[in-house]
Design a protein that fits this description.
Layout: E1 3-8, E2 24-27, E3 38-45, E4 50-57, E5 66-72, E6 81-83, H1 87-96, E7 99-104, E8 142-150, E9 153-160, H2 163-172, H3 181-190, E10 194-200, H4 202-206, E11 216-221, E12 226-227, E13 240-248, E14 253-255, E15 259-262, E16 267-268, H5 277-291, E17 295-303, H6 322-328, E18 334-338, E19 341-345, E20 349-357, E21 366-370, E22 377-378, E23 380-385, H7 397-418, H8 428-453, H9 468-495
Parallel strand pairs: 3-13, 7-23, 15-17, 16-23
Antiparallel strand pairs: 1-7, 2-5, 3-4, 4-11, 5-10, 6-11, 8-9, 9-10, 12-21, 13-20, 14-21, 17-20, 17-22, 18-19
Length: about 500
């Protein structure tokens, strides 16, 4: 069996800076927001039409100066709002992230094989969300429908009759609203959407361990399976990246109002990609997105049904456990126990979607559909390490070197095909084996020449023997030569 090593890559190494995914941030005039990556866990129970959305975003800044505004279809109850551990996103990302699968060739001259397995998980730090000022009074069509204290957050559920009223309410409470907020608020108000507003309570935050904001989770029952993203474009000047981890009962999640396609995968790539995997995958995704800008890209899709022992091939990390799935909002699984600890039974499919969007390519909110497609897919790239050969006397070495050379040229072709990278930049990559082949062929030719000229005083005949006539010819010539020498010596002696 071939030696295998597994390498994974976390989200933040793969994505470009982004803004808020399904809402916008409002900040006091001097506040700065750097929302580098957007991630959402979406759970859809198709039997009950219950949606659970967990939100996490990275940013830097003073927690007390920020707020988050997210449109929701109903007035959320207190029990519908939770905070969850931030490492839930780390687990989901580490499990489903694009990965390298690294294989090692066996020595062509060996009659045994070596196997080794190694898993690496990559963690990244993520902070979160949010902040905002509250007012219990109606203000220009704005009504506070509900008010809660959840974890380190003060939560408001607002309704509004006009976008200007909500904008003025936020502005008059000391917050800097994106210039384009008014136009993106209007469609939600016309659809009678409510607005979930979260502000950090710094006192409760300081009483808690850690100086990060917990991801916020909201749950509601609604016929639509969707994610609002238009508000997130209000304070964005460019493209935004969003990772959606979707957990459903029946199969792969896809966008119903945009195209969904899988990323290039299962491709052999050069070994040097190992050291630049983050940059490599950025280029892979950038090229795929450039060719299909209004698309959602599947990076992972796998059936996690409790009866399905294999949850990935190969696995980047261990699959999510029953408690982690429950924390994300999966409420239809049955927890069981076995010799390996807690497990679960029931239908479950895990989909990871990567979406890069802007106002032009995604003018509508994301609408999702749960398909019956349970085909397993993972965004995987393959590294094949050549065998280390110290003794090149084996006759299998030269054909093996040629195989490696051909493979390396194919790897460069693949690299150029799926990225913006030019294979000519890496011409030295196959050159190593071109030199090995040239050197080994020269050594073999030299040896053949030496073998051909060794012990070749007499000509060789097909039979391997000298014919009698030829043998008597050589004997006769030798006798004549000896006679001439003797005669010459006698003649010289007679003269004296």
């Amino acid at each position: 069996m071939k030696k295998i090593k597994l390498l994974g890559i976390a989200l933040t190494a793969c994505t470009i800076s982004a803004q808020a995914f399904c809402g916008f941030y409002v900040a006091k005039a001097d506040g700065k927001l750097f929302n580098k990556s957007s991630q959402v866990i979406m759970v859809r129970n198709s039997s009950t039409q219950k949606n659970t959305i967990t939100m996490a975003n990275d940013y830097e800044g003073d927690f007390k100066e920020f707020a988050m505004v997210v449109p929701v279809p109903v007035v959320l109850r207190e029990k519908d709002i939770k905070v969850v551990r931030k490492d839930l996103f780390e687990r989901f990302d580490g499990y489903s992230a694009p990965r390298l699968a690294e294989y090692y060739d066996e020595n062509p001259c060996w009659d045994y094989r070596i196997y080794e397995s190694k898993e690496l998980s990559f963690n990244y730090s993520l902070s979160d969300n949010v902040v905002r000022e509250k007012d219990k009074n109606e203000y220009q069509g704005v009504t506070i429908e509900a008010e809660y204290e959840i974890g380190e957050y003060d939560i408001l559920i607002l309704s509004a009759t006009e976008s200007s009223g909500l904008k003025n309410w936020l502005t008059d409470n000391g917050y800097k609203i994106p210039e384009k907020a008014n136009e993106v608020l209007t469609p939600y108000i016309k659809d009678d959407m409510k607005f979930f507003v979260a502000k950090v309570n710094t006192k409760r935050l300081n009483n808690r361990r850690g100086k990060y904001l917990s991801p916020l989770q909201i749950s509601f029952t609604h016929k639509k399976f969707m994610l609002p993203i238009r508000l997130g474009m209000a304070n964005s000047n460019g493209n935004q990246d969003l990772i959606v981890y979707a957990l459903t009962q029946n199969g792969r999640v896809e966008t119903s109002n945009y195209r969904t396609q899988v990323m290039p995968s299962n491709t052999d790539v050069p070994l040097f990609v190992r050291d630049v995997f983050g940059d490599f995958y950025k280029s892979v995704f950038s090229k795929a997105w450039t060719n299909n800008k209004s698309s959602a890209f599947v990076e992972y899709s796998w059936d996690l049904d409790g009866k399905n022992f294999t949850k990935c091939d190969p696995c980047n990390t261990t699959p999510p456990e029953a408690q982690e799935l429950s924390n994300a909002g999966v409420d239809w699984l049955r927890t069981t126990r076995n010799n390996w600890g807690a497990n679960y039974s029931g239908k479950l499919h895990f989909t990871r979607l990567h979406i890069r969007y802007n106002r032009k390519t995604y003018p509508q909110d994301l609408a999702f559909i749960e398909t019956k497609n349970k085909e397993n897919f993972q965004c995987r790239y393959v590294l094949r390490n050549p065998a280390k050969i110290n003794d090149e006397s084996c006759d299998k070495v030269l054909p093996y070197y040629q195989k490696v050379l051909d493979r390396r040229n194919i790897e460069l072709d693949n690299l150029e095909d799926i990225t913006w990278w030019n294979k000519e930049w890496y011409s030295a990559y196959p050159k190593k084996y071109e030199n090995k082949i040239t050197r080994l062929k020269a050594q073999q030719n030299e040896k053949e020449y030496e073998d051909e000229n060794e012990n070749n005083f007499l000509p060789a005949f097909p039979s391997g023997n000298i014919p009698p006539m030829i043998l008597w010819f050589f004997v006769g010539v030798s006798l004549i030569g000896i006679s001439l020498i003797i005669f010459q010596k006698k003649e010289q002696a007679f003269k004296f």
